[in-house]
Structures are given as C-alpha cells and as structure tokens.
C-alpha cells in the first residue's frame, strides 16, 4: 500500500522533487544535532 502511494507520488510530482524531499528529510535530523551542539557550546566553554 505504501509503495503504491510512493509510486503514485513520483508520477504526480516528478522524480527530482521526490529525491529532494527525501534528502531534506534525511538531513533534518543531522541539522538538529548541529543546532544542539552549537547551543551547548557556551556551556562547554565555561570550563
């Protein structure tokens, strides 16, 4: 069922858009880790 929806989505919006959305989804969690690291940096520098 999910595969059929995915293929239907590709047919509707095109392959490049699907690849872009997938990559944005993958990088989002990594960007969250970067933001957390930057926010914790001042606390680490107090030592």
Largest β sheet strand count, sense and barrel closure: none
Tell me the span between the first and last alpha carbons: 54 Å
Structural class: mainly alpha
* Shape annotation: rod-shaped
Provide the domain count: 1
Can you summarize this structure?
91% of the residues lie in helices and 0% in strands.
List the helices and strands and how they pair.
Layout: H1 2-13, H2 15-45
Helix pairs in contact: 1-2
Give your account of this protein's structure.
The chain is an all-alpha fold and 47 residues long. It has helices spanning 2-13, 15-45. The mean pLDDT is 87.
Question: Which descriptors would you attach to this protein?
Answer:
91% helix
């Amino acid at each position: 069922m999910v595969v059929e929806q995915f293929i239907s989505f590709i047919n509707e919006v095109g392959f490049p858009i699907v690849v872009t959305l997938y990559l944005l989804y993958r990088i989002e969690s990594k960007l969250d880790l970067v933001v957390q690291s930057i926010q914790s940096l001042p606390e680490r520098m107090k030592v």
